[in-house]
Amino acid sequence: MSTALLYNKIGRQIWLSLFGRWIFALLVPWFVPTISYLLIGEPYLQSLYNFAGGTLMIFAMTIVAFVPHDRAARYIAQKYPSLDSTIKRSALTAVAFWILTFVFVTFYMFFIMRFRPFEARLDARMMINVYLFEFVAVILLTGLYEINYSLNKWKSLKINKEAIKRAGMQGQLQSLKSQVNPHFLFNSLNTLSALISDEPKRAEQFVDEMARVYRYLLQTNQDELTSLAAEIRFIRSYYHLLRTRYDTGFDLVIEVNDEDLGKKIPPLTLQLLLENAVKHNSILESNPLRVQIRSLGGDLLEISNNRLTKSTPVRSTRLGLANIMAKYELLSDRLPLIDNNEAVFTVTLPLITPKTVSA
């Protein structure tokens, strides 16, 4: 890297770390003159030269010291981002600030005592006052950082919550668009009509499962997450409708570990993947479409289906997969993985636990 590019990168980082933050703007007007007086003593106020020069010198020292303080605060915030970790984050930030402040202040006082710039008269009593002042300043600075962080975090969570609601509404609309439409109703009612005359008991069961499907579709997106157990109960009802319609041409295998049932996923995720499989594959009793839902361990759930090319392929809009990815981006640090090869289409979903939900 050239010297010019290196200086440009350093300057950009300093600008973003310091002058782009309101904390530094609040700190400078009172902190720099006060600490200048404590470090230089009475000569600081005895001439314009000493006042201006001493202020600029301490201002430059403050910038140098503030950069590692700012980076330490941001590093700790990244390690403990949750609002539930406020006390721990504040305590660690304060300790880091006190250590850094002690190192920088000690070095600066040694420099001033050694070279006596601007006729400085720093003695032992003044050094104690400097340490006491810095101790109080660190408490105030920590408070400002925590207030700034908490407000921004709260704002971010609020924005994310609104985005999740929008994604949920889009998912609900997409699901209803795919399911609650004349074509779907026509096929369902045709199936029901045939069952009523030939198999009335199966017709009654079909109506019950159909009611469960529609109830879940209409209600579930009120929540950001649903348990895997609830989603699988819904999928069994949804599968019953598909199985009644396609008979042995469609098969679903669910192999989910009991310990995964209490974990969370975005609602309608499995339904969208089953719908995707039915939409893009041929379904024949002689060559069935098979969908498998199984636990992989490590908080992962795999949904796969064999690929059976349709004679007239359906154009993919990828809205269902895009909706799933959008929800995971908002709700988790891990994203689904998609493997689309010639034989099998596979989606691996992360199961969301309280530890993996984005804060």
Automatic annotation (TrEMBL):
<protein>
    <submittedName>
        <fullName>Histidine kinase</fullName>
    </submittedName>
</protein>
<keyword id="KW-0418">Kinase</keyword>
<dbReference type="InterPro" id="IPR010559">
    <property type="entry name" value="Sig_transdc_His_kin_internal"/>
</dbReference>
<feature type="transmembrane region" description="Helical">
    <location>
        <begin position="47"/>
        <end position="69"/>
    </location>
</feature>
<feature type="transmembrane region" description="Helical">
    <location>
        <begin position="21"/>
        <end position="41"/>
    </location>
</feature>
<dbReference type="GO" id="GO:0016020">
    <property type="term" value="C:membrane"/>
</dbReference>
<feature type="transmembrane region" description="Helical">
    <location>
        <begin position="90"/>
        <end position="111"/>
    </location>
</feature>
<keyword id="KW-0812">Transmembrane</keyword>
<feature type="domain" description="Signal transduction histidine kinase internal region">
    <location>
        <begin position="172"/>
        <end position="247"/>
    </location>
</feature>
<keyword id="KW-1133">Transmembrane helix</keyword>
<keyword id="KW-0808">Transferase</keyword>
<dbReference type="InterPro" id="IPR050640">
    <property type="entry name" value="Bact_2-comp_sensor_kinase"/>
</dbReference>
<keyword id="KW-0472">Membrane</keyword>
<dbReference type="GO" id="GO:0000155">
    <property type="term" value="F:phosphorelay sensor kinase activity"/>
</dbReference>
<feature type="transmembrane region" description="Helical">
    <location>
        <begin position="131"/>
        <end position="151"/>
    </location>
</feature>
<dbReference type="Pfam" id="PF06580">
    <property type="entry name" value="His_kinase"/>
</dbReference>
